[in-house]
Amino acid sequence: MTTTTPGLTAVRAGVLDYQAAWDEQRRLHESVVAGERGDTVLLLEHPSVYTAGKRTEPWDRPMDGTPVVDVDRGGKITWHGPGQLVGYPIVRLPDPVDVVAYVRRTEQLLIDVCAEFGLTAGRVEGRSGVWVPEDDRGPARKVAAIGIRVARGVTLHGFSINCDCDLGHFDRIVPCGIRDAGVTSLTAELGHPVTVADVLPVVERHLPTLVTA
Length: 213
Known about the structure:
The protein is an alpha+beta fold. It is built from 4 helices and 12 strands, in the order ββαβββββαβββββαα. Strands 1, 2, 3, 7, 8, 9, 10, 11 and 12 form a 9-stranded mixed beta sheet that branches. Strand 9 and strand 10 form a beta hairpin. 41% of the residues are buried. The mean pLDDT is 89.
């Protein structure tokens, strides 16, 4: 299913193997770079997979031999899988390219999505992604992750937001290389099921934030 919001085309790709999604990202990237299509966002779920960005340290990885896919995005290691909505925006950034500003827009999109479900989330200084602040339930915990790459002025990779995934998958790794904070989901924080199907249309509605200067 494809929907168009101002300045963007969103493609609901369903459940897609990580390698197949990566191939599709690269195909779309070439088209956007060449000016053959406009900004496009893939929205999907992956079968369970660990991916390691360029800054991943050996000790961040699983110690039990679980396979890890090494990728060319920024950041460290994370998990993708059922119950987590993943977004891959393939968008042309304004010239001069400001990667930090794009990351901030991506964070704002995710903060606004959380707010629509009644969850207050925000930024943590020096750490990317979107966080539920420290409270009586525990230290700050990440509900959405961001890892991007920009090539020839057009973005690759993107964001993930934990909806109703099994958080136990994060126990095998040091998520994003951060040892002193936790990982959470909308379902865990709100105390009732919030599914990918619930979150998908809300994310779509906020996608224009990515291209708003």
